[in-house]
User: Fold this.
Amino acid sequence: MITYEDVRNNKEISTLIDGANHVLSAMKYTEHGLRHVGYVSRTAYMILDKLGFDEKTKELAKIAGYVHDIGNMINRKDHGVTSAILIYPILKEMGMPLEDVCQICSAVGNHEEEIGSVVNEIAAAIIIADKSDAHRTRVKRINERGSDDIHDIVNYSIRKNIVLVDGEKKIISVKFYMDNSSSVMDYLKIFLPRMVMSEKAARFLGCEFRLYINNVIINTVKRMSKKQLEQVPRPDEDIDL
Ligand SMILES: [Fe+2]
Ligand SMILES: [Fe+2]
Assistant:
């Protein structure tokens, strides 16, 4: 079986990761190098591990996390699809069974919110991992004069990001801790579609998704029984309008 270690030791793949990071640096994007893909790999593995998935699925998710952004080496637009097309022949040549290559390519090709869908467990895990990686250390451009880019400003204000998985209660929580150099409003302006996709990914894994910013839950839909719903007062009854 081709392992994550085999993929990590493959010079061609690490060159593609460096090339992708170089293109995004030139476009003034946040860091997308070995740190980012390493984080996505580890986090995707952890999510599936806590939910009791088998070793093989976890290993494939780790590999998918490592290669998910290589398409940026060609162009940011549709880079998920390009990543999948680039990695397909490499994994095949390394001797990975074709069914496993397909699983990885489907996940990688669907990890971006613009055109992606949650097509399998590996996709679900890398989507949540990828979208949770927002942090001040990813910002390259902030200097004494600051930055006027909203992505830089929001990322820079995030002091801590955590993904927590409660395998028993089936809850996946993503927590961000922001300082006052940005705002929750700014965060939502740019990251809401990513969190909506993470919600879908958690649901695919049979879990509820909770987004916290500074310990305040942002997204939970309260599930109420019919009886509870009937007891909710109607505005015309109880509220003085
Ligand atoms: Fe990506
Ligand atoms: Fe990514």
Summary: The two ends are 67 Å apart (CA to CA). The mean pLDDT is 91.
